[in-house]
Amino acid sequence: MRSLRRAFAAELLAARTHGLHDQNLRPLADETVLEFFENLAHLTRDRVLERRIVRNYFSVAVVAYWRASKEYVMALRAFSRDTELYSDLEWLSAELSPITSMKSGVIIPQTPSSQAINDFLRAEQSLT
Description:
The chain is mainly α. The chain has helices spanning 2-18, 32-45, 51-80, 87-104, 114-125. Helix 3 (51-80) packs across helix 4 (87-104) and helix 3 packs across helix 5.
């Protein structure tokens, strides 16, 4: 999963900084990371997974990846005319945002700066 996150972060960062998403919404090469978090969110919402466990292990990554990919997902929803695409991930991020703020001791803004998002993606690129 680390290698998938590293590759996805690199591609997402390139798309964010160099505007590689054209009018035809060129899809990212591999959305496995988003699909993983979407499935995790779905299982959490349906109470298959305990929220406490999800919160402890995934809260920072879920919130950060949603915020980093939100613009892309919104464009993908519009392009595919599927308003439910990654909606469970969006829900879980909203659920976990306050918890992530408490864990870090810093109030995380609802709309983090572009620089903060890009810094997260750069950190993800260095996963080993």
